């Protein structure tokens, strides 16, 4: 296959302020991704429902020991407890100890914690997974959840201890837990290939969890070419390409992500419709020739001023009638939730970049208008994660 050149992108050096289209797909054995599409069926819990009843002592226990609760969940994943009980429900404590190769004391400690947390249940001396966990195994979502847990354990957990310091300093103090000179997490990961692989694997899972909303709510009618700005490993371009067979995509990202994206796109058998370009979304000009610019999980990383800059760049790159799509988790304008957004925001405040945060819907709408877009519309994803799409037209 010939080298990819994203529409309008020119292969000149970074110093020339243009993106580097990556070479053709990696490897010859193109195969379909075996990942299953995730269908989110649970409806959204509103912030009002979460904050309506007064705090109880029991709620306080859950919060004081929140770190311990997470460790119980993580240990259950890492030791294979949930996978074991999914395959063999109704095992006794002794059988679980033997299968997990744990001594009796740690087995009791683990099962006490997972059962008190209702991750497992105990009936007549036999343990089972919570019904929810088994249903997540059944529909393919559990592999996503275990990646999210791994992300929290290996990327977020240690840095999150710097939350207070980050609030005091109004910057991402937690970044100090990652060696290197890069100004944000993404640039520091480049020095740690092992962590970088884990990061992009887990980020893919975060995105797979929510991108059915993107696929459902992003209106690509009449669109021919989408520029996926900071598109990571191509997870969203792949999902959108499958749902929109006449649309081409270019994933723009840093070199580490670009290499992973090429592999994932080839595995999905979509190398003919999705290209990869490497570059810096702030420093380099956007390639031309696109009638849609997508910012997926991107405008949560940067400050208001940086987001406005990115949206203005998108506006300049688009022809009249072109559209912009912003997709990510949003907080509620009522400032009381949802819980998912509030707790995810602790990560954003502590680690990715100096001014990362989840914004509310109205903030994005204001920036889109300021950047020159009209017909600004919000499309929330009526499910349990607080994701949604905001679109605008040039
Ligand atoms: C939160 S991830 C989202 C990835 C993808 N859009 C998704 O939804 O899965 C942010 C992405 O922005 C990329 N990124 C961060 N800073 C960048 C920069 N200055 N230039 C290009 N890409 C950047 C990161 O490498 C990462 O892939």
What's the topology here?
Blueprint: E1 20-21, H1 47-51, H2 57-64, H3 66-78, H4 81-87, H5 93-100, H6 104-116, E2 120-123, E3 126-129, H7 131-138, H8 142-160, H9 163-169, H10 185-189, H11 193-217, E4 225-229, H12 235-243, E5 248-253, H13 255-267, E6 274-278, E7 292-296, H14 304-317, E8 323-329, H15 339-350, H16 361-370, E9 374-380, E10 387-393
Parallel strand pairs: 4-5, 4-7, 5-6, 7-8
Antiparallel strand pairs: 1-6, 2-3, 8-10, 9-10
Helix pairs in contact: 3-8, 5-6, 8-11, 9-15, 11-12
The chain binds S-adenosylmethionine.
Domain O-methyltransferase C-terminal: 182-374
Region (Disordered): 14-35
Domain O-methyltransferase dimerisation: 64-132
Question: Describe it for me?
Answer:
Residues 1-18, 23-34 and 36-41 have low confidence and may be disordered. The protein is of the alpha/beta class and 394 residues long. It has helices spanning 47-51, 57-64, 66-78, 81-87, 93-100, 104-116, 131-138, 142-160, 163-169, 185-189, 193-217, 235-243, 255-267, 304-317, 339-350, 361-370; strands at residues 20-21, 120-123, 126-129, 225-229, 248-253, 274-278, 292-296, 323-329, 374-380, 387-393. Strand 4, helix 12 and strand 5 form a beta-alpha-beta unit. It has 2 domains: 62-137, Winged helix-like DNA-binding domain superfamily/Winged helix DNA-binding domain (Arc Repressor Mutant, subunit A), CATH 1.10.10.10; 147-393, Rossmann fold (3-Layer(aba) Sandwich). Helix 3 packs across helix 8 (142-160), helix 8 (142-160) crosses helix 11 and helix 11 (193-217) runs parallel beside helix 12 (235-243). The protein is built from 16 helices and 10 strands. An 8-stranded mixed β-sheet has the order 1-6-5-4-7-8-10-9, with helices on both faces. Bound molecules: S-adenosylmethionine (SAM). Residues 186, 203, 207, 230-232, 235-236, 253-254, 257, 280-282, 296-298 line the site of S-adenosylmethionine.
């Amino acid at each position: 296959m010939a080298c990819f050149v994203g529409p309008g992108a020119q292969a000149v050096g970074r110093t020339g302020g243009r993106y580097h289209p990556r070479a053709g797909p990696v490897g010859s054995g193109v195969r379909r991704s075996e990942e299953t599409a995730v269908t989110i069926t649970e409806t959204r819990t509103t912030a009002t429902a979460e904050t309506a009843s007064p705090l109880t002592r029991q709620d306080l226990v859950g919060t004081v020991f929140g770190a311990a609760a997470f460790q119980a969940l993580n240990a259950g994943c890492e030791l294979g407890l949930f996978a074991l009980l999914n395959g063999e429900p109704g095992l006794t404590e002794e059988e679980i100890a033997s299968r997990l190769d744990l001594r009796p004391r740690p087995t009791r400690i683990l099962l006490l914690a997972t059962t008190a947390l209702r991750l497992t249940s105990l009936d007549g001396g036999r343990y089972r997974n919570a019904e929810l966990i088994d249903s997540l195994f059944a529909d393919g979502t559990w592999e996503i959840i275990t990646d999210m847990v791994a992300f929290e354990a290996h990327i977020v957990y240690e840095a999150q201890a710097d939350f207070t310091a980050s609030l005091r300093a109004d910057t991402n103090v937690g970044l100090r837990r990652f060696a290197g000179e890069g100004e944000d997490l993404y640039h520091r990961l480049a020095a740690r290939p092992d962590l970088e692989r884990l990061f992009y694997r887990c980020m893919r899972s975060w995105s797979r969890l929510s991108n059915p909303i993107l696929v459902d709510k992003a209106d690509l009618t009449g669109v021919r070419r989408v520029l996926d700005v900071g598109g990571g490993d191509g997870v969203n371009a792949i999902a959108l390409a499958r749902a929109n067979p006449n649309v081409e995509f270019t994933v723009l990202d840093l070199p580490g992500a670009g290499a992973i994206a090429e592999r994932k796109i080839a595995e999905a058998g979509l190398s003919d419709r999705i290209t990869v370009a490497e570059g810096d979304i702030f420093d380099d000009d956007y390639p031309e020739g696109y009638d849609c610019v997508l910012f997926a999980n991107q405008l949560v990383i940067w400050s208001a001023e940086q987001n406005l800059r990115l949206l203005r760049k998108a506006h300049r790159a688009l022809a009249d009638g072109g559209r912009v799509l912003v997709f990510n988790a949003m907080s509620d304008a009522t400032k009381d939730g949802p819980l998912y957004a509030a707790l995810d925001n602790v990560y954003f405040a502590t680690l990715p970049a100096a001014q990362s945060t989840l914004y509310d819907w109205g903030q994005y709408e204001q920036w889109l208008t300021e950047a020159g877009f009209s017909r600004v519309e919000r499309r929330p994803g009526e499910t349990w994660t607080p994701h949604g799409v905001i679109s605008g037209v040039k």
